[in-house]
Design goal:
single chain; 400 residues; alpha/beta; Rossmann fold; 2 domains; nine-stranded mixed beta sheet; two-stranded antiparallel ribbon; 11 helices; 34% helix; 17% strand; globular
Length: 400
């Protein structure tokens, strides 16, 4: 066979083999898919190799729950459980497209993990199991990741709303420690202010006990409190009671006390601060908070701490003299209720997260050990693995 003919034949065979490969690739492209739990999907076009696109999985958030409610739904959720505090450990997932400040829940139906915040697991605990499980979650953590944050919700908050909000705060603040939701019986109605206040009063001892129990957790770092609205009054009362009992700083573990739109009478706050000083107390105030305006009206126009006009130097100075740091959130107002700015405004929740996760140089290498009753330095022979690092970016927060 002539040389030119052989060359033509070889080129034709090579072209046919290439076409076969491309045809097989095209058949594969776009037809291999995995669900949200998978890691790979193939997306391609005719004549091209498939692209590799890892599927983004939902983010997992675990939260301990300490509740003084008799139940979570119906009338039981509105009553104080006189038998004591109920405990649980709940696992929630956040959709890959979660937006900071948002609580993605379906308008109707049960929702799905690709689009909504979902509960993926729940385990009831008794008090001993709660303490043991908490110690297990703290164990092995390093530095500020040994910290615990206790979130206390406010007035007009059903159980499920409190759970979604607590999880959203943990996710958006990038808190790297162990979160706990303390939930008390709120009736979830605008006309139930007086009964909610009674329920909050009846829950003071339970919150005080929780704070003291957490402080005894082996290797625990700081115990931070983030409390909203009437929950701010409840948190300050629990700390006040602990101080009267001789434990002003939770055995040296009290960290940041952050009060978001606190529904606290100014004179009452003065007495509370006198008891817990020199605690690090931060007030996030909004002068046009409609909910606090209603609370003030119910209380015969007595001023609420969370509605102080921090833009006025004299008003801001009045709180600072008590030992509190004050942030004015009025600039983030949307002109509506303005009672949840602290959590649903990305800049604010990021600033809160930056304050909670700020490293402490003296404890950077401190490791919690489950079978130790005190903090211990990291041992070179058995290095602990820290949880995933929080974001290094610190967004600009409100100007103090």
């Amino acid at each position: 066979m002539p040389k030119a003919a052989r060359l033509c034949r070889d080129r034709l065979c090579s072209l046919m083999r290439l076409m076969s490969v491309l045809a097989a690739t095209a058949a594969l492209a776009g037809c291999v898919e995995t669900d949200i739990e998978g890691a790979t999907s193939y997306v391609g076009s005719m004549g091209g190799l498939a692209d590799h696109h890892p599927e983004v999985k939902p983010r997992i958030v675990q939260i301990f729950i300490a509740s003084t409610r008799k139940g979570e739904t119906g009338a039981a959720a509105q009553q104080v459980d006189t038998d004591g505090t109920r405990y649980a450990l709940t696992t929630l997932t956040f959709p890959p497209g979660h937006q900071p400040g948002a609580i993605e829940r379906p308008v109707w139906g049960s929702g799905d993990a690709k689009s909504h915040i979902m509960v993926s697991g729940r385990r009831e605990l008794d008090s001993d199991e709660f303490n043991a499980e908490l110690a297990s979650h703290v164990s092995g953590r390093i530095g500020v990741n040994r910290d615990v944050m206790i979130f206390v919700h406010g007035f007009n908050t059903p159980f499920e709303d409190a759970r979604w909000r607590a999880a959203q705060i943990v996710a958006d603040s990038r808190f790297g420690g162990v979160p706990i939701l303390f939930t008390w019986p709120s009736r979830g109605g605008l006309l139930s202010y007086a009964s909610d206040k009674d329920s909050a009063m009846a829950s003071r001892d339970a919150l005080q006990s929780l704070l003291e129990d957490v402080a005894k957790t082996p290797g625990v770092g700081r115990i931070h409190i983030l409390a909203h609205s009437m929950g701010g009054w409840l948190a300050m009362e629990a700390l006040r009671q602990a101080s009267i009992a001789g434990d002003r700083d939770l055995n040296g573990h009290l960290g940041e006390v952050m009060l978001a739109s606190p529904d606290i009478d100014l004179d009452v706050f003065t007495k509370q601060m006198a008891r817990i000083s020199p605690a690090k107390v931060t007030v996030f105030a909004t002068s046009n908070d409609r909910a606090l305006s209603l609370s003030s009206w119910i209380a015969d126009d007595r001023p609420r701490v969370g509605a102080v006009n921090a833009a006025k130097p004299e008003d801001k100075a009045a709180l600072e003299r008590l030992g509190a740091k004050v942030y004015d959130l009025s600039a983030f107002s949307d002109g509506l209720i303005d009672h949840g700015i602290y959590a649903d405004t990305p800049d604010v929740i990021h600033a809160i997260g930056a304050q909670l996760t700020a490293p402490r140089a003296s404890e950077a290498n401190t490791v919690s050990i489950i079978d130790a009753r005190s903090e211990a330095p990291a041992a070179p022979a058995a290095p602990a693995v820290a949880p995933a690092a929080t974001s290094s970016a610190t967004p600009a927060g409100p100007t103090p």
